[in-house]
Amino acid sequence: MRARAITVLVLGALTAMTACAQEPTENLFTNPSFEEGFVEQGELRIPAGWILYAGAGAGMAMEPTDEAADGEAALVIRDGDLAAEIGIRQDVRGEGGIAYEASAMVRALKSGGGAGAYIQLRFAPSGEFQQVGLEAANEAQFTRVSVVGVAPADTTTVSVYYYTHAGPTPEFIIDSVSLIGGVEPPPPPPPPPPPAVPPVYEELKDLHLQTDLVAGGQARATIVSPARYSAQAEAIAAAIERITGVRPEVVSDTDDLAVVPPDDGSLDRNFILLGNRSTNAMLEELYNRFYTLLDLRYPGRDGSEVRTCHNPFGDGHNLVYVGGSDDAGVAAATETLIAKLNQAGGRQGALTIGRLAEITPGEGIEFSHNPQEIEIWDASRGYGSTGYFGWVSHSKHLAAYYMTGDEWHAREFIRLAFPDDEAKRQITQIDGERIENKDDPLAGPYHYNAHMMILLWDLVEESPVFSDEERLQVTNAFSRQLDWRKGEGIYGLQRPPAAVGSRHGQWSAISLYALARYFAKDYGDPVWTQAILGSKMAFAPLEEHGWVSGEADNLFWYNTGHAPIISFMLLSGWRGPQESGVLAELLRGQEILATGKDGDWELNSASITFLNGAAYLTQDGRWLEYLRRSGIDLNVPRVGQSFWPEGTLQPELPLDMVGHWSIHPMPAPMWAARGTGFPLEQSFQFGSFRSAADDTGDFLLIDGYNGASRNPYHTFTILEQRLAGQTLLKGYRNQVLTRVDGMVEPTIAMNGALRARDVVGDFAAFVGEVPNAAYSNWRRTFVQRVGQYALAVDELTMREGGGNIQVQTLWEVPSGSWDEARNSIAVSGTAGASTPVGWRSISALRSPRKSMPEGPDYHVELGSLGIAILRATEPGQWLEMQFSLDQPVTGEVFADFIRYVDRGIYSISLDGEVLVERFDAWGETADPARVSLGRRELAAGDHTLRVEIVERGRSGDRSFIGLAGVSIRPEGADDAPQGELRNEIVPSDPVRPVREGSVFTLEWTGPADEGQQLTFFSVIGSDVTGDADDLACMRLADNAAVVGLPQPGVAVAGEYAGTQADLAIIARDHLYAREATAVAADRPLLVASAPVTVAWDFPNATLSVLAAEDAQLSLSTGATGLTLDGQPLQCAADGQMMRMTVPAGEHTIAGATPAEAMTADLGGWLSERQAEAGRIRAQAAEADAPGTLPEVPAIEQTELADFGSPVDQVITIPDGEGGELICAAEATTIHLLRPDGTEAGIATTDGQIRDLHWWPEHELLLAACADEQLLAFDRTGARKWAFMSEMDPAVFRAAKDYWFKSAAAHSGLWGVTSIPSFINDETQAVIGSACTLEFVDGEGKLVHRMPQFWGDPHVFQVIPGPEGSVNLLAARRINDNDTLGIINNRTLDPNPRGFHTTPSGHTYVGGWSSMNRYHVFYEDLDGDGTREIISEKNGSWNRVSSWDAQGAALSDASFGPGVNSPTRNMRDLVVADLDGDGTMEVIAATASGLVVCLDHEMKREWARAMPSAPNVMIAVPRAEGAQLLVACDDGSVALLDASGTVIRSTQVAGQPSWRGLILAHTDDGPLAILGTSSGAVVGMGVE
After folding, report:
1. Beta bridge partners of 1527
2. Can you state the percent helix, strand and coil of the chain, rounding each to 5?
């Protein structure tokens, strides 16, 4: 085969020595081309002269092949074992100081077959090595891959490995391997960066306050002016000449002299510049570099600025700006400068001016003294002007001073820069986390918010408002910022990393760059040179590819992960990404995400400067259209740079995005690193199709990989789907998930392949595939007929069989409900309440509005739901919308809202008259609500609807208003609901629906065999109720379904009744088929000699066809005169069909009227299929639902108490007489009951009880409460003491107030336990609250308080620590990550984390604030006398794992994705020896309705389906082993034996409480105590 010669050279810091110069050697290998034969080693065949490396795993293969790169033989290596490795090795004698190159010709045997394989060059005895991956290998041809390394001085042996690594499963051919000594060595590594020690400056730099315009009889300044200011330039030149006798040169702004140097360059003179960034090219680049703010918005209309810019490039030369936003402003500035020149004391041959800052702000350019009220140009709709990204109070004050000259702002900057206690409080309140070091703010800003400080200080430092002492203080404070930046991964970079970092890394790089630029030009120090280099290296990969890590999968933040790139390009003058084409690719990614809606999610975080900056760099008006859509108010004065576009650039619709698929590709390095297993061209990040440039048409947005960040688990998902302007799907969870017995495989799919996408006729389609989905290959074909319907076909080929195969089809919708009668999801869409035919609807979003309070922090638009939101908190706050009628209307008027959990209680007025006094808008989910205002006679003209809060809502402080608009039903309009539009998702099979907010999980459970293909169909569409046809979907065969679109149809995937196609839709009025060779409906409708994709519109007699190759096509048509792309098409009769030749490509055949016989028979055939599907559905309905309990004896139960409100927790405590008391927590009461139900006492709390614990050392019952109190009671219920929790001060100083106790999600105490011996070897109680652990003694006194960043500690375990110490493990309920805190009783260090990793061969799935723990056990699992830690991870990914006491992962079982924590997907966990064999079982209860038993190695023993999700379990000990008592959501309770068989059952009223099941010991034997949501406490005999 033809070889492709590509060398991959690894440049590594192997050694500091210099390689010896030497002629290259011959190939040092024996049998390098494998032509000298092979030897057998077990089942493997190894090349002669080579040594087998590893190879003991299952599914391994090594054998010769004649598919060689050169000669007759090559070597095939196949690694089929995720946990094992295989390869070959050869050792040769080596010599130190020599550069060696190991290489091979490699060809992949499957897509991505080289990923996970390597060439390793290793030197002995040092053990140093270099290696390179074989990701570059492809299936088409051989690729040369090589690695170079320099042998250390002591080298005696060189070993080369060609091998696979555990994890992936590579398959490849290797040939023509070589090892050459004496090759050209890699360049030596650069010297290490200087230590990042902030310099301390004792002397202030030269401020260069004087600007020589004429000196020594020579002009020292050049005037730069475009032609439009020639008169002003001439006036300035004449004034200088009049004073000095020397005329300065006037040049155009495009002259070679007017070129701005790079940051490390210099100016050779002073300059006077006229205009602004839009009118003067030199000012334009100085603006980009942040040396001026002159633009079309500053200094504003008729405003002017005469300002000196001092020594910007460190060369002693200054700039004089004569600027304005308009011509009048420039003219006024010219007059001001001439006046200043006349006052400067110039003389013949000399004129020098001092610092100038003559500012006349234009109309509206004024700023509040309150930084919270200062708006910024870097604002976005989502972040507002809070300061993200770049800003804090300090930078806002500096900018306000620079732009207005108001000295108050300058002095306020100094006050806040060196804050007293009051200033620190102000910084904490206003800036929060944006200033991390409140004591030294200039040294410790958050990296998101740092760079504007130093950039703006550079512009104002020379002002006389500051003293030299203050300047030096500020200088050293900024220098100390290096301590804050040096640990962020940027400073030490000396070469480009593999990828550009997330927005965190990018803003850190920009902050470091701005800091270093300031110091390098005036102070100099190697640290600043390195800081600039590190900053540039952080972005350097963009010259080669567009791999930007971090936000690419957090697509709602996509623009925030790319805005820093534009900022750095402009600030540094670097245009590498633009020249490489990468910037265009990244910006196209933003466009692919654009939904077309105003104010939608993808632009929520897009700043004004990002969108204006993109418009500037691309000179494309589409970015101004996106800015318009963002809904940001552009008319208020703002600080900073606007990058305001010239009038020649106007908003334009992105019409080139319409009518086709646009795919954001996966960059090659990213693809290689992820090892997707697919060809590069099928690996992608996301893509979209749209039928219109705005929000009126159809839209599909798909995502192709999981970035393991903040989002739910996904591989290939539909992020958004819009049909005829209605958004029906929205979110990351629109996908299919599979499990066997509730579990998934150790290796977890993280990528999806885009196998195909196309647009044929009015059908847009894609085919996605996840080959390594859990126990299956999942393939989704999704077809959408524009404006009409969509069909999803999910094909699952099972790799493992079983009786509990779970297939979960997830649909995430804007809002909706399950319609049991129709077996469908009724989707509300995004337009609020639907508008019946004949009604009039007026949108709040498109109407003028007022509110109290006002401003972007309160009054916002939520385009995704079509509503205006008022974030009201108090009664009396209101929202108004004005609407106009062009003619009088009489009829019933309605106010339309969207209910939700944060809504308040409203009064509703129309034109000043209160018509509804009290409407409660609370709702569990976002659902439309239409409130009648009665029959009204509305005159033509303006009207006002007012919605006012009269009472706070159920959520407490939040009393939001969500107004969709006004609807009017004119008299005579039909009020019948049959005219309303109904949006639905209809599955082909009866399913168990589970709703979590807006996510519907439609679960099918049943048996399947290994290798069996399961096919599921889902219809998504809209239908007007009451017409003849309905949306429908019913199974017809294993691979076929009857569908209602709403017109009747049949969908086929594969071969069925004469049809052979990947997918065919045969409907009454159209036919769609992809990759089809035959389509039939009792008679052939289409036959093709090669697979084709067609869309046949019967009424329009038009057939669109896509063919990969020339094909003979026969159609059931009797028409003649057909045309192909407008040209006559030759056809021949073929029985009852017409045959024609269709060339490869996309074509349109016109005149293809269906044959009369075909249309006559099609209706009957469809009716027969519909009847057949109805019979199949009826049979399915008769089967028992999965999890139905068998007929078994009943568990005896006794109601011990009924409190009338939910019992949240039940524990037992000693009664002091050898027995036990039952403690049942209900709201603020603890009921102490005897086992017979009689009351022994009552303990009351002031706040809701969160957790109970018995402290045996002090015989105290502890209650951790929501009001921050830990209360202690004796066993009679008497209160002994109260401890009030406080947040650790370190948490307050960190200033991330969303983690504070004051945040609703974190307030109160979340967990309590006690430790027999901890601090000072004494017993303490431990309580967890917002990022805080507190240790309390037996009298309720604080012993120690410490932070736990980030989250709420709530579950604890104590294990031995090193050298006889004790470790406390703390799990956090809501957190930043899923680690356990490890607190040692001797060090009390709050920082150690662990117990989160997975064993080798098990994919680790991370996530931000998406997983938590509810159990941490410490048990001897395997009976060897050593205890292990066992815990579940619960949330976006769910698993049960074990670790040794040092935190090393031992075993793991994955249960797959779920809803983010704190939702309990893993409902409960029990560790017990069920079968009495001396080893423990680990039993997990899942939200999908299963109880799954694992052995001590986390291998599945059995699984049992329950009637509903098991909510709580306990082990009931027996003489040998134990049984399992399981209580489910529906109140069913079952006792299972050690094999999972149900042996007894009962039913209780209400939902069993999660922490409400315990085992009490009575004189009559064990008694299970269960508390329920109905308030009952039930005793169940389990003897």
Report:
1. 1512, 1533
2. 15, 40, 40
- Residue 214's H or E segment, with its range, is strand 211-215
What pLDDT, on a 0 to 100 scale, did the predictor assign at position 773? 94
Which residues, 6 or more positions from 1324, have their beta carbon under 8 angstroms from its beta carbon? 1314, 1315, 1318, 1335, 1336, 1337, 1343
Residue 1268, Ramachandran bin (φ over 0: left; ψ between -120 and 50: alpha; else beta)? left
pLDDT for res 82: 73
Cα-based angle 486, 492, 494 (whole degrees, multiple of 5): 155
Distance CA 1019, CA 1050 (A): 11
pTM: 0.84
Contact status, residue 210 vs residue 346, Cβ threshold 8 Å: no
Distances (CA, A) of 644 to 324, 561, 598, 989: 14, 22, 21, 56
C-alpha angle 1069-1073-1074 in degrees, rounded to nearest 5? 155
> Which residue, 864, 927, 934, is CA-closest to 895?
934
Q: How far, in Å, CA of 1574 to CA of 1572, rounded?
A: 5
User: Measured between alpha carbons, how far is 491 from 210 in angstroms, rounded to an integer?
Assistant: 35
Determine the Cα–Cα distance for residues 445 and 461; give it in Å rounded to an integer. Answer: 19
Contacts of 612 by beta carbon, 8 Å cutoff, 6+ apart: 623, 624, 627, 642, 643, 644, 645
* Size (the chain), residues: 1583
pLDDT of the residue at 1539: 96
pLDDT tens, position by position, 1244-1281: 999 999 999 999 999 999 999 999 999 999 999 999 99
Write down the pLDDT at residue 1180: 86
Alpha-carbon distance 987 to 984, whole Å?
A: 10
1015 - beta bridge partners? 795
1306 contacts 1286 by C-beta, under 8 angstroms: no
What is the C-alpha separation between 710 and 714, in angstroms, rounded?
Answer: 11
Structure tokens belonging to residue 1255: 């402290």
CB 635 within 8 A of CB 624: no
pLDDT in tens, 1068-1112: 999 999 999 999 999 999 999 999 999 999 999 999 999 999 999
DSSP string, 1111-1136: EEEEESB---S-EETTEE--EEEETT
- The three-state secondary structure class of 942 is strand
- Note if the bond before 389 is cis, omega within 30 degrees: yes
Residues 1469, 1471, 1472: CA angle, nearest 5 degrees:
140
Which residue is associated with the tokens 């139900």? 1237
Give the Cα separation of 1260 and 405 in Å (integer). Answer: 66
CB 1504 within 8 Å of CB 1547: no
**pLDDT at res. 11:** 32
For residues 117 and 167, what is the distance between their CA atoms, to the nearest angstrom?
10
Q: Name the residue among 433, 427, 434 with its Cα closest to residue 390.
A: 434
Give the pLDDT of residue 20: 55
What is the reported pLDDT for 824? 94
DSSP annotation of 846 reads T
Alpha helices by DSSP H, 498-595: 503-522, 526-539, 563-572, 576-580, 582-593
E-strand stretches of 354-437: 357-360
| Nearest to 1380, CA basis, from 1368, 1389, 1364, 1366 | 1368
CA 133 to CA 1047: how far, in whole Å? Answer: 54
Extract the runs of DSSP E, i.e. beta strands, from 276-314.
304-309
Over residues 226-238, the pLDDT tens digits come to 999 999 999 999 9
* Residue linked to tokens 């979960």: 808
Q: Do the Cβ atoms of 704 and 674 come closer than 8 Å?
A: no
Beta bridge partners of 478: none
All residues at 6 or more sequence positions from 101 whose CB lies less than 8 Å from its CB, including other chains: 146, 147, 148, 178, 179, 180, 183
Could you say which residues of the chain have pLDDT below 70?
Answer: 1-21, 111-112, 552, 829-837, 863-865, 924-926, 955-957, 974-980, 1024-1028
HSE-up of 388 (CA within 13 Å, CB side)?
16
